[in-house]
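Known limitations

Structure tokens in this collection are predictions and should be treated as such. Users comparing against experimental data should check residue numbering before alignment. To illustrate the layout, the record for AAA family ATPase is reproduced below. The input appears on top and the generated tokens appear beneath it.
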Amino acid sequence: MSLDANDRARAVVRQIAGDGLLIAPGGDNKLFPKGAKSAKGAAHGDVHSSGDRAQGEEEPPFLRQIYGVPFSTFRTRAKMWLWEENGHKFIPLGEAGYVAGPGGIGKTTYFLQQVVAPLTLGTLPGVFEGEPRNAAVFCAEDSYEHIVKPRLIAAKADLDRVFKIAARTPERDDLVPQFPFDADSLEEFLAAHEISFTLLDPVMSCLGNGIKHNDPQAIRSVFDAFQPVVERTDSSLISVMHLNRRHGEDAAGRMSGAHSYSDCARVGFVFAEVEEGSYVVSQKKNSYAPQKAPDMAYHFDSVLVDTDDGIPVDVGLVVVDGESEVSADDALTAPRQTAEEREETEDLASVLHEHFVENGVGEFREIPSSDMPRIAKTLGASVDQLKRAKRRAGIKSGKTQGAFSGGWVWYLTEPIAEDQGTEFAKGATKGADSCVPLPSLPSHPSGKREDEKLALPASGAPREPWTLPDGLPNVATAKPESQEPPKSQPAGTKKHKGRPSKLTPQQWEEAARMKHGGMSNQKIADHFTEETGERITSKAIHAHFARAAEKSR
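Generated tokens:
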């Protein structure tokens, strides 16, 4: 380099020296604030040209240099998965990711009980299955003694393998870690204790001084610090964050940090509440899998956990219900239900349950998922309303439970005995050997093979294909819902869940006459709301007539 080039380079150094954008002599990749001393005591603000520097004076700091590495020197490696189940890839090893969702829906509990606990027991499907591994947890918003440990106990975690993360100084212990400044110390800790999974909840509490959660560059610096740590320790790290309260936007629109969290992370999950007591988790991002993992529905059961005080405490236990037809973004952007809409959902759930009891196939009363639009139209609802009412009706969706030879179905969570009047289909656990073919339901999910038909025992008569009713019910031939209820069942009640009907059989007959007279469902509902003092919805009126019409065929 010529003298003039050196002088020009030093002029640039003089210009930026006050911003701390320099590398210390010796090549240490550190940022030195204005006036900071280098390892040998030279002030970084003192930059001289070669002609001005006295004999024996320290070399000035130098600029960062760009260099290249041939790809032939890199290893070619397959991505390993901390959590991989049923062909679905959830959490990659050696990567940092995020979890986002509204507060209070069990994001941390889900990962404590579905990832941390099985990892410590060697039961987490993935690269460490059969090999118990250690995990580390930081929880700023929950008490370790009152909440975090009981949740781990409820999931039967090996507590000797779960570590609480904290920072210390010569003066104090139990400090909150600050990233990216504590990244090197975190790496030493993970390596020393052979930690395979780290959970930071929430990551906002771990941001160092001067790191603003809505500053994209600052947030990027945090994830840029996490990534080499997990790569070198061959572990996975998940940061938990809350979404803001702007209802109606998807997860990306409700994240802070100008999308830096989702942009920098290699894997991301979003949680949402579908309805009261029912939740969904969706894989929002997965940089290493050909497709995202399915949306998973879950709820909480309650278990008692013994404490050292001798007083059992009630702890929530995550129960995964299977794949969800509603994604987290669907739930986040769905309009909130009013009190009136929630009551309509209750009514629809009651009607939907009865429809499955009477029309479903097999002991779980299965109906193909592809039939839901027709059923929704029959019941005077939308498919989205059916989905919201599904859990309240005691219905799940998933792979067939045996009534069909394949495909997705909706089915009751509690089986019903064969002698309660339902036919068994080909492939069911009972009566399958003596079945004769039945015409398949409309839009049967198989739909590709002629031999995939519904069936019922040979002694029975084939059932006609289910179709939408047309016209109004024939009051003379339609069976009332409950004309002569058994003594153990009070008059006017439905057959399931003990949910009382709001109208008696006589009132339903009156409603039918009003309907034949041309009165709308809404006016009929208003009439009986005033007469009974209970709120009767037009959807309940429509659903009753639709079911009565179907029975009369």
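For this record: The longest strand covers residues 313-323. The CA atoms of residues 40 and 135 lie 41 Å apart. Please report discrepancies through the issue tracker.
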